From TrEMBL:
SUPFAM superfamilies, per the entry: Peptide methionine sulfoxide reductase
Species for this entry: Rubritalea profundi
Annotated active site: C51
Stated name of the protein: Peptide methionine sulfoxide reductase MsrA
GO molecular function, one term: L-methionine:thioredoxin-disulfide S-oxidoreductase activity
Keyword Oxidoreductase: yes
Catalytic activity, as annotated: L-methionyl-[protein] + [thioredoxin]-disulfide + H2O = L-methionyl-(S)-S-oxide-[protein] + [thioredoxin]-dithiol; [thioredoxin]-disulfide + L-methionine + H2O = L-methionine (S)-S-oxide + [thioredoxin]-dithiol
Top EC category: oxidoreductase
Signal peptide start-end: 1-27
């Protein structure tokens, strides 16, 4: 059997699929999304855990989360674009800004999923995504959140052999990402290679794939 030629064909097909998938993404609406509302009684927190497409997909299915918006924070560049972020020079991280009802879902629960959703022991990297923009980070909005985040980080360490490198930092200005990044997995899971081969397996592993909302 001529196995090598077949493997070459499969590899070329995969590369072509990835290329055209990404081209369709980059040609989409690049206007910034709207800043999420924070209703009375709700709280907000921003989490960085690698590519925001994956993290947004998870938190959009967590009961008690009003909104999960992909965007950028932690850097010095004003009104950054995705292209600015990709250079790694903006100082910003890809994050998901979460608005949640603490009467329905606690910050402890939100952070418990955070530790499960990525590897917090790899510095500036998640899988093949490498750069400071992919750093593991928790951006808190008040001192109570800071204390909870630090306690959660300490508790989570027992689940990892290597030290957790997640930074816990007071929030600075959050910039919503471009419109095409929002609900990315929901809109593209059947036609984008990253959704199919990276996000979908993680959603299935965490028990989110076949559910509209997960209680806890």
């Amino acid at each position: 059997m001529k196995i090598k030629p077949l493997l070459y064909i499969v590899a070329i097909a995969a590369l072509a699929f990835t290329y055209f998938s990404n081209q369709s993404v980059m040609s989409a609406d690049k206007s910034p999304a709207k800043m999420p509302d924070v209703p009375d009684g709700h709280e907000q927190i921003s989490l960085g855990a690698g590519c925001f497409w994956c993290i947004e997909a998870i938190y959009n299915r967590l009961n008690g989360v009003k909104s999960a918006v992909s965007g950028y924070t932690g850097g010095s560049v004003k009104n950054p674009t995705y292209q600015d972020i990709c250079t790694g020079a903006s100082g910003h991280a890809e994050v998901v800004h979460i608005v949640y009802d603490p009467k329905v879902v606690t910050l402890d629960t939100i952070l418990a999923w955070f530790w499960k959703a990525h590897d917090p022991t790899t510095l500036n990297r998640q899988g093949n995504d490498v750069g400071t923009q992919y750093r593991s980070a928790i951006y808190y909005y008040n001192d109570a959140q800071r204390k909870l985040a630090e306690a959660s980080k300490t508790a989570a360490q027992k689940d990892f052999k290597s030290p957790i490198v997640t930074e816990i930092t007071k929030s600075v200005k959050f910039y919503p990402g471009e419109a095409y990044h929002q609900d990315f997995y929901k809109k593209n899971k059947s036609k984008n290679s990253y959704c199919r081969f990276i996000i979908a397996p993680k959603m299935k592993k965490l028990g989110f794939e076949d559910k509209e909302k997960v209680a806890k």
